[in-house]
Amino acid sequence: MKKNIKVILLTLVFLTITPSACVPASTSVSPTLTPVPPVNSPVLTATAVTSTVIDGGDTPDESAIPEDVNDGVAERLDFLYAPQGFTTVLGWLQASTLSKTQQGEPALVIIDYMRLIEKKDDGSEHIVYSEDYDVDQPYLQNGGLFIRSPRWFATDDSTPIYNSEIKDGFLILDVSATPDNILHWWTDRVYCDPHARYFLEVSVKIEGKVGFQLGSDYWVDMESQNNGWDENCQGVNNCEAWFSDWYGDTNGQFVLIRGPLH
Fold first, then answer.
1. Which residue blocks in 75-213 are alpha helix, DSSP H?
2. 3-state DSSP assignment of residue 187
3. Pairing between β-strand 125-131 and β-strand 210-219 as defined by DSSP bridges
4. Which residues of 104-123 are buried (b: 16+ CB within 10 A; e: fewer)?
5. What is the distance of C-alpha 1 from the center of its chain?
6. Residues 6 or more apart from 86 whose CB is under 8 A from it?
7. Alpha-carbon span 31 to 33, nearest angstrom
8. Which residues, including other chains, have CB under 8 Å from residue 220's CB and lie 6 or more apart?
9. Which residues pair with 194 in a beta bridge?
């Protein structure tokens, strides 16, 4: 169960990280190879601090953009509302080292919680999906390690994110262990209102040379599989709604990222 941490307004937590024996940063995972075993989680000590809220659409931090990302270097809003024929929505998150060749440098993402939120035209907001990481897992189930060479997401093939762990109410991702991969994961799909907008809210701590981004996709239904991409969302099962700026090191504290709101 999650440790007893109270969050009041924007009062979150920050963590002192004492690394334990982890997979060396030089170890990498390719979707074509056998994954490395799960990393041992850092020792987490919670201390309350006051966090800031970061809204999507602010001036992007160019230092947080991975050097080889081929699309999505700054917030882009493609479809604020579900296109006709698309009945479900999900949120997604991804992280990668700033360079696919970096070795031995910290690159850590720790998430306290994430929410997929529906925003009606009258301004009211409703949480439609929530993940608090209350159930320990040896690695993250709803996602994968995708290739970044010869280009990002060159194929749909992936392997499990073995350099992740859910423990004591936190999702911990040692991004440094897989510099040649993108860690990409997502929420469950939920039915969407065609007259509402959807955004993500994430309480996250980012450490070291790593970029972190969030986004959202619409799907035609609850079960359909990926069958390609079309910029106008014609003849395909999923449609990219939006993606955020990239976010980097948060100076030792959790921040609350909400995007997009612009």
1. none
2. coil
3. unpaired
4. eebbbbbbbbbbbbbbeeee
5. 22
6. 192, 218, 219, 220, 233, 239
7. 6
8. 85, 86, 87, 88, 237, 238
9. none
pTM for the complete prediction?
0.80
Q: What is the pLDDT of residue 73?
A: 81
Strand ranges (E), 6-124: 11-18, 43-50, 53-55, 76-77, 88-97, 107-119
CA atoms of 226 and 196, how far apart (whole Å): 24
**Three-class SS of 4-29:** CCCCECCEEEEEEEECCCCCCCCCCC
pLDDT at 64 over 60: yes
CA dist 48 and 226 (Å) reads: 42
Residue 176 backbone phi and psi in degrees, to 5: -60, -25
Beta bridge partners of 207: 108
pLDDT above 70 covers what percent of the chain? 76
Parse the chain into domains and list their residue ranges.
Answer: 11-259
pLDDT at 15 over 90: no
Average pLDDT over residues 112-141: 95
pLDDT in tens, 36-54: 343 444 444 343 343 566 6
pLDDT digits (tens, 9 = 90+) for 203-246: 999 999 999 999 999 999 999 999 988 989 999 999 999 999 99
Pairwise CA distance, residues 174 & 14, whole Å = 17
